[in-house]
Amino acid sequence: MKCSVCGADNLEGAAYCEDCGARLAGGAPVASAPPPAPVQAIPVPSPSPAPPARQAGAVKCPACEVENTSGSAFCEECGASLGGPSAQPAAPAAAAPAAAPSGPRLEIGGKFFLLDKDQITIGRKSPADGIFPDIDLTDDDPEAFISRRHGRIVKQGVEFIFEDTGSSNGSFVNDTRVNASVQHSLKEGDLLRLGKTELVFKI
Fold it and tell me: Which residues contact residue 112 at a Cβ distance below 8 angstroms, ignoring those fewer than 6 apart?
């Protein structure tokens, strides 16, 4: 097969001239390049779901790290103690101290004896002898230094008078001994000692 460009003879069926490389008419068709392989679509992994938003005040379990409702005592997932407020028993509320009553009174160890009569006897009770004083100090005098009929307080107008009625171990107002049957006027804050028991006079 003769080349139309350079005139060189070539083998029958040749597609290109061996001398000049020109395409030969009637030569074997040049195989077309295969079409490019289609690009395979690579699946894009879907984004991982965002972790649930932490609840305000949520408590994380120290064992499994699961979020629990605020105030939970135990983990809802593994049952571990969360050490939250509800895990501990609530402390009992402190009892409010008793309010002091108004009016003239004798105070001893958080107790109050109101002086609400014109004459008030003080001593230790003795049911066998029929003695029941208005102010019974039996529980405040375990050594029995107070006599059964130790003394009395008499109200005279706005004044309160203490009188020892013949006690065995004596009576004192602010460390001053009060002799039997001698009346002693009481003032705000006076310390009245009967035997070894002390009371404070309040108005």
Answer: 100, 101, 105, 106
Q: What is the DSSP string of 126-170?
A: BGGGTB--SEE-STT-TT--S-TT-EEEEEETTEEEEEE-S-SS-
Structural domain boundaries of the chain?
55-86, 105-202
Quick one: pLDDT at residue 39? 47
CATH topology assigned to domain 105-202: Tumour Suppressor Smad4 (2.60.200)
Q: Which residue has the higher pLDDT, 19 or 175?
A: 175
**Reduced to 3 DSSP states, what percent helix, strand and coil does the chain have, rounded to the nearest 5?**
5, 30, 65
Strand 135-136 relative to strand 171-173: parallel, antiparallel, unpaired?
unpaired
**What is the C-alpha radius of gyration for the chain, rounded to an integer number of angstroms?**
56
Quick check: 186 and 161 in contact, CB under 8 A? yes
Q: How many CA atoms lie within 13 A of 85 on its CB side?
A: 7
The pLDDT tens digits of the residues spanning 122-157 come to 999 999 999 999 999 999 999 999 999 999 999 999
Between 28 and 74, where is the model more confident?
A: 74
Per-residue pLDDT, 34: 59
106 within 8 A of 113, measured Cβ to Cβ: yes
